[in-house]
Amino acid sequence: MFHYRNSDGVPLASALYKPENFDPKKKYPLIVYIYERLSQNVNHFVPPAPSHNINISYYVATAIW
């Protein structure tokens, strides 16, 4: 979790997710997903599966890399 303030001084939070076997020597795609109220789910596990929403567990799973 990253905590910061926007240009109006409003506190915000964001999360950075890396693939499960992250290798700093490799390049990975970056997905930016902005939504007003998702940080409360930062530790909520969603089983990896394609869906109409961004499924963090699916995108950080080694199987897709």
3D structure, described in words:
Strand 1 and strand 2 form a beta hairpin. The chain is 8% helix and 12% strand. It has one helix spanning 56-60; strands at residues 2-5, 11-14. With 65 residues, the chain is mostly beta strands. The chain has a two-stranded antiparallel ribbon. The longest helix has 5 residues, at 56-60.
What descriptive keywords fit this protein?
single chain, globular, two-stranded antiparallel ribbon, 65 residues
Please report the distance between the alpha carbons of the first and last residues.
24 Å
The largest sheet, given as strand count, sense and whether it forms a barrel, is:
2 strands, antiparallel
Question: What is the strand content?
Answer: 5-15%
Count the E strands.
2
Q: Return the average pLDDT rounded to an integer.
A: 77
Question: Over all CA atoms, what is the radius of gyration?
Answer: 14 Å
Low-confidence stretches: none
Across the major sheet, the strand order is 1-2
Order of helix and strand elements from N to C terminus: EEH
Number of helices: 1
Fraction of helical residues? under 10%
Which structural class do you get from the secondary structure elements?
Answer: mainly beta
- Inertia-based shape: globular
